[in-house]
Design goal:
It contains eight helices and ten strands. The chain has 229 residues and is of the alpha/beta class. Helix 5 packs parallel to helix 6. It is globular and about 40 Å long.
Length: 229
């Protein structure tokens, strides 16, 4: 029988140093800082992203969510922000991931896959060899105004489970997660990590009680390990 593992928790849409402190104090493994997006919540300006990133203690990952699509823009954005992880929320041209890894040694690269149907499985399998992790979300990049995260919607977790089983890199699950469904998410998908934004907020503000409840539920309902960390 495989030992159980507690998923890593990423609290996203952090908008202030105070919110970052709440997330870290509650035991989050990572925080998400959202830069300019075509739609969705949690966007903060680049100067504030850099300010918050400087306060994150060692051992907690700082994710920069960027919709930039060129290597030069992404590299410049990371260097200005001072984060240790890039979360690429849109598709990049072929070869971009390799170029980013050469330009930014030591910076983790996480590619978002928006699970819109069975075709997302092939997309995830294709990109996996070139990144450190994938994050399965519920956006829709095909819309006229792209949805690249923060929808608060749950996608088809059966597809997410298939992706998780096919990949040998960490898989994060996002989209519509809340304290009252996190146990179901862990059981159905078995992700390496969970990414939550609106599910731990009240009237747009990070709710410390909800954050604590989310993390408590994730610890109570751990899953089979997706890989050996």
């Amino acid at each position: 029988m495989l030992a159980t593992r507690i998923p890593r928790i990423k609290i996203c849409c952090i908008s202030s140093r105070a919110e970052a402190t709440i997330a870290v104090r509650a035991g989050a493994s990572a925080i998400g800082l959202v830069s300019s997006m075509p739609s969705g919540p949690g966007v903060i300006h680049n100067e504030l992203i850099a300010e918050i990133a400087r306060t994150i203690p060692p051992g907690v990952a700082s994710f920069l969510l960027t919709c930039c699509e060129t290597v030069g823009e992404i590299v410049g954005h990371q260097r200005a922000a001072g984060v240790n992880t890039l979360q690429l929320v849109d598709r990049l041209p072929h070869g971009s991931h390799d170029s980013l890894r050469r330009a930014l040694p030591g910076i983790s690269i996480v590619q978002v896959i928006h699970v819109t149907g069975e075709e997302s499985i092939e997309e995830a399998v294709s990109v996996a060899p070139n990144v450190n992790a994938v994050l399965l979300d519920s956006g829709n990049p095909a819309l006229a105004i792209k949805e690249l995260g923060g929808t608060g919607r749950r996608h088809d977790w059966r597809i997410s489970r298939q992706i998780r089983e096919l990949l040998d890199i960490p898989v994060f699950l996002a989209g519509g997660l809340r304290p009252d469904n996190v146990a179901e998410a862990i059981e159905e998908v078995g992700p390496y990590g969970l990414d939550v934004c609106s599910g731990v907020r009240t009237n747009g503000d990070l709710d410390e009680a909800k954050v604590n409840a989310f993390i408590r539920q994730s610890k109570t309902h751990s899953s089979e390990p997706a890989f050996d960390s």
